[in-house]
Structure formats: structure tokens, C-alpha cells
Amino acid sequence: MKSILKPIVVLILAFFAHAVIRRYHPRIVMITGSVGKTSTKDAVAAVLGTRLYVRKSEKSFNSEFGVPFTILGVENPWKNPFAWFSLMKRAVALLVLPNHYPNMLVLEVSADKPGDLAGILRIATPDMVVVTRLPEIPVHVEAYASPEAVREEEFSPAYALPANAPLIVLADDAYAFDNAVRTPARVISYGIGEDVNTRISDVDFYESEGKVAGMQAKVSAGGEEGFCIVRGSVGKTQLLPVAAAVAAAQDFEIPLSEALKALESYESPPGRGRLLAGKNGSVIIDDSYNASPAAVEEALATLKAFPRAKRRIAVLGDMLELGRYSVMEHERVGALASASADLVVTVGIRARAFAVPANGTEVIQCNNSYDAARILPEQLRAGDVVLVKGSQSIRTERIVEALLANSADGVQLARQEKKWKQKV
């Protein structure tokens, strides 16, 4: 029954969402890529919201369901029939009654399987596209013929842009940049390299009261220079959304100083490199939202560079949806983990490949997040820095919750909604 109902519901949602777009004609910014979409979406919305009435995708609403939810301005009804009825009432009201509708939508879009983005593009056509990273082995590759096919689909919103429309791409990503320059769009680059429109440089950890409290960097754009601090999370990747948002601001003629001011209150979403206080005087890097090879690689680099850590611990769960690349990528990342951590804790069957003995690195293997959550708290010592990362289905946020010094900080974790908490 579910397999029959789902396509029908998708069609109904798409119909109403498309009709709303046609009625109100908001400008649409689409955020696409394999890594960093949600953070980039939040940063872009924060900047453009200084000049426009902006609505953004909530959390990671980026699918054939999530995008219509954002357009209609509703929450996920989950399995509540009354909530679905209210959703339909809301959709009809938007079409037949006067409404103060946003004049800008910032939509995060994603593809789990071939054709997903084509379906979303039939609902809404972008006026601006921001492309984040498209790595060599992207997530969801098991559903595609090749990694190239995933990258091509994730880049596809750029092909829907009108000629000379702004296409904002991460210049440090060769695939995204090379494809961008072949389109008729107006390419605006951002990144850490030298020859980019919006550049971040002098990247470093930000410290406050003698403790690491975030990331900092110099930002250059449009002949201006400024300084940004992203508080509460760590990793070079925390600064790339800021650069993308500044690049978008430049196209709207928002001065750099104004854009950076708008980003002062920006924080990375839950489970994306968040700094939390752990038991026994430890520090947690909560990167538990999801995991792909490229993202784990960046997270391990952050752990390795974390200043004044007495011991570095990498708690790594399975990386899912990698298909035939799974074994190879788990082994490759395992070698990086051994070079970056004093203790590697594997969570899940696939993650056992992370246990690469080298450089005296200790290894603890756990079957699941429940086992890790039970074992790890007694392992922590003062000065430990603990990275926790794994694919969504591994639910590594449960491990983070068990390691918190203050249980009240649990509200800052990923997947804390009632429906998620009820899942096994």
C-alpha cells in the first residue's frame, strides 16, 4: 500500500507547490551538492534575509517531499492524518486567498536516486544556484551507475538557470568549477584558492578564554576585506558556507560589511562539527548528522589539527550508500583515522574496516551506537577531544548524548524530534 500511495502523494504535493510558485513568483535560490548544503542554505538565507522576505528549507528538507513542504510553508506531517489534512487546507488557502508570501525561497535540494532532481526542477526553476562540494565518491552512489552520474545529477540545477543568471560554485572543487564555466550562466566562484571572487584565507581556530570556540578567517570580496568568526563549531568546512553566502550577497549588491554583520549570529546546524562539553573535562566535536568519505576525511583533518588536545579520539560509524565503493572507502578512511587519532572507536559492521592498526593507535570495536554509548563514557579523560561521526541510520547522536557533561545540551543534537526519538 505504501508503494502505491507514495507516488500519488508526491504528485499531489508537486502540483500544489508548482501552483504556488506560479501564483506568487518568488525568486528561487537552489543549494545543491554532496556536502555542506544545509549549512550553506542557512548562511545564504541569513544574508539575503537582510534585504528580502526569505523562507528557507527547514533542517534538511531537500527531497521530493521536503521541497514542497518548504514552498507551502508547512512542517513534515509524518504519519499524522490530521496534519496531512491541515497541509492540504494550507495549500488550497495559498491558491485562493490573499497571502503575504515570501519574495525569496532558499531551497536545499538533494538526490537519493536518479531522477530526483528532475522532479524537483519540474516544481521550481532556480534564479540562482549555489553548488557546494561534489567529491570523487559521493554519498548515495550505490543507487547510480557511477560517481560521475551522481555528480551530474547534483550539478543539474545549474543547467536549469537562464543565461547570465548567477551560478555560485566552490572553485576548490574541480568538477563543479569545470562544469560551471561550460554553462551560459554567470559564474561566481568562492573558496580558499587564489583566483576566486569570494576568498577566505588565514583560516584558523577561534579561541575564547583559552579554549577553542569556533573558526575564524579573513574574507575578501568585491575589492573589500573583512573578518568572520563562526562560533560553536570547528573545521575548515564551517567557513565555506560563509564564503558562499558572501558570494550570493555580492550579486545582490549587499556590501561585504553588511553580509558579515548578518552572519555574526550564524551557527552551523546540529550535528555538523558542533563543539560540546564532554564528561570528565573532554571536548566533543559533534559531527553526527551524516557521513560520507569526503566529510569524514575533513572531520579527521580537523581532529588532527585541534590545538592542545591531550588525546584525540575518533568515534566513526558506518558510511552507508556507497555500494561497490564501500570496502575501499572504509579502508582508505581507516588509514586516515589511524594517522589522526590516538584511539579509534568503530561503530557498525562496515566501520570495522576503520580499524587499521598503525602508529600505536588503539582500537575499540562496537556493534552499534547503543554499545558505544555504554562503553565510551568511562573511557574519557580530561583534555580528550572526541570526534563523533557516522551515517544517519547509525544514529551516532546517541553516542554524543551519552558523552555530554550536561544532559541539558541534548537539545543541541541532531534528530531530537519526537518521531526520531521513537525510532529504534
Structure description:
- The chain has 424 residues and is α/β, with parallel strands linked by helices.
- The chain folds into two domains: 2-196 and 237-259, 3-Layer(aba) Sandwich (UDP-N-acetylmuramoyl-L-alanine:D-glutamate ligase), CATH 3.40.1190; 274-416, Alpha-Beta Complex (Protein-Tyrosine Phosphatase, Chain A).
- Helix content is 35%, strand content 21%.
- It has 14 helices and 15 strands.
- The strands form two sheets. The protein has a nine-stranded mixed beta sheet with strand order 2-3-1-4-5-6-7-8-9, sandwiched between helices. A six-stranded mixed beta sheet has the order 10-11-15-12-13-14, with helices on both faces.
- A hairpin with a 5-residue loop joins strand 10 and strand 11 (283-287).
- Helix 12 packs parallel to helix 13.
- The longest helix has 23 residues, at 2-24.
- The protein is globular.
- The model has no long low-confidence stretch (mean pLDDT 94).
Topology readout:
Layout: H1 2-24, E1 27-32, H2 37-48, E2 54-56, H3 66-72, H4 81-96, E3 104-108, H5 116-123, E4 128-131, H6 147-155, E5 166-170, H7 174-180, E6 186-191, E7 198-208, E8 211-221, E9 224-231, H8 240-251, H9 256-262, E10 274-277, E11 283-287, H10 293-305, E12 311-317, H11 326-340, E13 343-347, E14 362-366, H12 369-375, E15 384-389, H13 397-403, H14 418-422
Parallel strand pairs: 1-3, 1-4, 2-3, 4-5, 5-6, 6-7, 11-15, 12-13, 12-15, 13-14
Antiparallel strand pairs: 7-8, 8-9, 10-11
